[in-house]
Design goal:
Elements (H helix, E strand, L loop, with lengths): L2 E8 L2 E6 L4 E5 L6 E2 L10 E5 L5 E5 L6 E3 L2 E2 L3 E4 L4 E4 L2 E8 L20 E4 L1 H10 L7 H23 L3 H15 L5 E6 L8 E7 L5 H6 L6 H10 L2 E4 L12 H6 L3 E9 L2 E10 L6 H42 L5 H10 L10 E12 L2 H7 L2 H21 L3 E6 L2 E6 L8 H21 L9 E16 L4 E6 L1 H9 L7 E5 H4 L8 E8 L6 E7 L11
Helix pairs in contact: 1-7, 2-7, 3-7, 10-11
Length: 546
């Protein structure tokens, strides 16, 4: 019977929560089975449900910011597997499945040439156990002592690998062990599927000859990619004592050119997935492998099993580092839900969001009478006012899934519909405007500032180019185009404490009755009349965000 636990990371604190019922709710309400009073988490955000066959699924409960499993947004329900990462707003939960179904067996194949036994393909798990048991056919004391010694060695190796924090430290430990146990090996390489795309990358390499270290890392052509890919894709272990005489590699001209005579490669397993390959070779034929090959290969396989766990920890740490860099880069502009969607897509090319044409609604919110207010205040007081005001108003932008473009003096420029497309971008923009006006009204009533404050808000909808624009030294995520220029001009005709929208926005919103026609206006740089609508504030209800 499978059991499920969730690992919650909050700062330096790690908490493990057991899913102790068939329907397990997660949310911001204290009565939820997992209480998460965090940003972006709805009152009842999601639930985990146990299926009749013992598996688990997660279902979103109509949350504001959505639920994701790895890179997939949960629409109805999503199966949960060991190692999955659940995102609810800003909170991540790692799924740990105990007593899972056993992985499918590794392909077990044996290959021998017609004349000589020079190539071995074997089941990795059988080989690992074979090395530990030290070929104890009759169970005599010497073999038992050898088995105990090897188990102790594995424990020591495992301890050292667990203490390794970087891929360099991991490989250093592996290299020491391999060159100590396997005298036939000249060179060693660690290849990892870093991007989980099936492409093996050389992350480190070593040689008994220390002078070759830099060459081995800089020039990966010495590695037999055909052997490594077979190990990785078919989940077998390979040991060949003489590639020159092995008809399996007779067509591999690269092997002949590289001078590879003997080679050994084993898969790095993480649960049911191969994350990489441990590869070793020698220029001279290792004929002793014909007698002792399986024992050396079984040790290599046992070692690879330990290395796989360390590599997976490193991959997870690197992924978290990458996500943190991207998150810091984006959280200035986007709501938590949008940030998580962008992270789920993967790393950004050159760390940038490339400019792309999008259908958006652009919003400008300007503080009324700011020039007069600033004349009466010290610079520090002006900064305090704007910081407090922007903090409050931006909550309304993010609550509606908007993106902050920039602050222009006392003005907030934000847009809706990018980087993630939003079919209802006009509704989102007008809802954010309504929320900003209502919130400021409440703030004024509670003495937010020394005097009542007012906003003017203008919204326009249409095509715009959105993305990172700038030089190599400074990049700004922004929206460009005529749609933005018109919205900026419209702000000048907006009455205090109201919102004006263009006819383009009016045609898109689901509640046009919230606005009334204000008139036709001509704006500088725009050679046509623009019909403008303004809010009917007495008809617009107060917004309460979950």
């Amino acid at each position: 019977m499978t059991e499920l636990t969730l690992r919650l990371q909050q700062g330096d604190t790690e908490t493990t929560v057991t899913v102790n019922r068939d329907v397990f709710t997660i949310g911001r309400l204290p009565e939820c089975n997992l209480y998460l009073p965090a940003g972006g988490v709805s009152r009842k955000h999601a639930q985990i449900v146990k299926q009749a066959n013992g598996t688990w699924v997660i279902e979103d409960l109509g949350s504001k910011n959505g639920t994701q499993v790895n890179q997939t947004i949960v629409k109805t329900s999503q199966n949960l597997n060991h190692g999955d990462v659940i995102w609810l707003g800003n909170v991540s939960l790692m799924v740990l499945v105990h007593n899972p179904l056993p992985p499918p067996p590794i392909k077990a194949v044996t290959f021998y040439e017609a004349s000589d036994q020079r190539t071995i393909l074997r089941n990795a798990k059988q080989l690992q156990q074979q090395w530990i048991e030290a070929n104890s056919n009759d169970g005599d004391i010497g073999d038992k002592n050898k088995t105990i010694a090897r188990l102790k060695d594995l424990v020591d190796i495992a301890k050292n690998l667990c203490a390794a924090a970087s891929i360099e430290e991991i490989f250093s430990q592996v290299q020491q062990v391999v060159f100590r146990y396997l005298n036939s090996i000249d060179r060693l390489a660690l290849l990892i599927d870093v991007k989980s795309d099936g492409h093996l990358e050389l992350v480190n390499a070593g040689s008994r000859d220390q002078t070759q270290q830099e060459y081995l890392l800089a020039n990966a052509s010495w590695i037999s990619r055909s052997i490594c890919q077979k190990v990785f894709e078919e989940k077998v272990v390979i040991q060949t004592a003489d590639t020159q005489k092995d008809e399996r590699f007779s067509g591999e001209h690269s092997i002949l050119l590289k001078g590879i005579r003997s080679a050994m490669a084993v898969p790095l397993w993480d649960e049911n997935k191969v994350v990489g390959v441990l590869y070793a070779d020698a220029h001279l034929s290792s004929y002793h492998w014909e007698q002792d090959g399986e024992e050396e290969l079984s040790f290599f396989s046992a070692l690879a099993n330990l290395v796989a766990s360390s590599v997976q920890r490193w991959l997870l740490a690197e992924k978290l580092k990458t996500e943190e860099v991207i998150r810091h880069r984006l959280e200035r502009y986007h709501s938590p839900a949008v940030v998580q969607q962008l992270i789920a897509v993967g790393g950004l090319p050159d760390g940038r969001l490339p400019p792309a044409e999008s259908e958006i609604s652009i919003l400008f919110a300007d503080l009324v009478g700011f020039t007069a207010i600033s004349e009466r205040l010290k610079p520090t007081a002006i900064a305090e006012l704007l910081n407090k005001l922007f903090e409050e108003m931006l909550q309304e932008v993010f609550a509606c899934g908007g993106t902050l473009d920039k602050y222009i003096g006392d003005c907030i420029m934000a847009f809706f519909g990018a980087p993630e497309p939003q079919a209802d971008h006009a509704d989102r923009a007008t809802s954010a405007a309504q929320g900003m006006l209502t919130r400021l009204e409440h703030l004024n009533a509670n003495g937010f500032w020394h005097e009542p404050l007012q906003l003017r808000i203008a919204i326009n909808s249409g095509k715009a180019v959105v993305g990172d624009v700038g030089s190599s030294q400074r990049v700004e995520y922004t929206a460009l185009g005529a749609t933005i220029n018109l919205a900026a001009r419209m702000e000048g005709v907006c009455p205090p404490s109201e919102c004006v929208i263009s006819e383009a926005t009016y045609q898109l919103i689901s509640k046009p009755e919230d606005f009334e026609e204000m008139g036709d206006y001509r704006f500088k740089g725009i050679d046509r009349l623009v019909k403008v609508y303004q809010t009917r504030l007495h008809q617009m209800p107060t917004i309460i965000h979950p």
